[in-house]
Structure prediction request, 234 residues.
Amino acid sequence: MTPVLQLEGVGKTYQRGDEQLRVLVDFDFTLDAGEFVVVTGPSGAGKSTLLHVAGGLDAPDSGTVAVTGQDVWSMSAGARAAFRRRNLGFVFQFFNLVPTLTAVQNVSLPLVLDGVSARYADARAEELLQRVGLGDRAAHLPAELSGGQMQRVAVARALVARPSIVLADEPTGNLDSHSSAEVLRLLRSLSDEDGAAVVMVTHDAVAARYGSRELHLVDGRASAVDDAAPIGDR
Ligand SMILES: Nc1ncnc2c1ncn2[C@@H]1O[C@H](COP(=O)(O)OP(=O)(O)OP(=O)(O)O)[C@@H](O)[C@H]1O
Ligand SMILES: [Mg+2]
Prediction:
């Protein structure tokens, strides 16, 4: 079976003044459907860079990134943007909701941008808000929601196009422990119920235990961590 995500020999270097900062070095990574991979590592290790390169947001200098078998960095920018909207969902630490749009409009936005009928987009967005427990908040603006609720809206938005991969960068970094647990359970249910693969960066040891596999990044090189608690033990 084709992996949902495959990075081969990926290199990423940033130029800082005269200095070359090698962030990812000959990086290989394979993600299968339904996996929930947690990425940990010290600040500056390249975790966000990895998600950006894997998610088609930031180009690698070398190597290939294939999402469901398609090389995302050989597409035109326009094709890549459309591909991203259909195949990848993103969840960020600071939610990144559009402040002038209601919850339901934020969730339906990727479908609307993709030219899906408003009727279907609204129905799908409402369904997802129900699923994340915010069916009664559809008409609220982000400013009228708590941090945990905003992040659940962001998770609903990430799912709206039924992506094969959800990439989450410290999704619980700004949440209290109760809201964190809700968001983590949602992400977990994605891989369990929908077969979507999740890659989640986190600094939080509790959050890390929601994964089925842990990758520890140091200086742009990854090692597997085998002592992740089995899912059933959480
Ligand atoms: N656009 C950029 N230009 C130059 N350097 C960058 C750029 N983006 C990231 N870096 C550098 O690359 C390194 C890796 O950054 P990255 O954001 O991937 O780290 P991280 O593991 O996500 O860290 P944190 O846990 O603090 O979020 C850092 O040293 C950072 O300063
Ligand atoms: Mg980061």
Residues 228-234 have pLDDT under 50 and may be disordered. Residues 14, 16, 21, 23, 41, 43-49 surround adenosine-5'-triphosphate (ligand 1) (CB under 6 Å). The two ends are 29 Å apart (CA to CA). Helices lie at 47-54, 77-87, 103-113, 118-131, 147-159, 177-194, 205-208.
